[in-house]
Design brief:
mainly alpha
Length: 150
Amino acid sequence: MSQSNNNPARCELTYAFLLLRLFLALRALMSCIEKFESGGTYSVANYTTNMTRMATGITGASFLPLWATKAFALPLGYLLGVLGVALLLGLKTRLTLVVMGLLYIALAFGLMAVQQGDGVAWLGVYLLTVVAALALVRYNRFAIWADQHD
């Protein structure tokens, strides 16, 4: 009897987690893709130009040195793409969510350094979404490579 009462809640939590996972995966993938765009075209050259411009802008408006901002910015788009694909497919979901949360914290730190409150707020929302997903990760039922504890 208790199992039948528990099943609908478990099913709802599974769908809640799936929705969070899909949202976060698509957000990461779209963030990756937009870094390759300039003037309506997409290329690796655009990516390098965009990320160098971002790193230089953050260095110019903060205390962060150019070597640090470039070291963070240049792999950023690729990391977002890898995390987005991993989350979409359910590859080591818990680990992927933790890395994504740490990435959002690092991005927020950079925006804090240049006093971009709106961007920090948005990243805070994404971080809360990651935290919610981590709280529900035990209901991850649609994964290609599940975590050991799932």
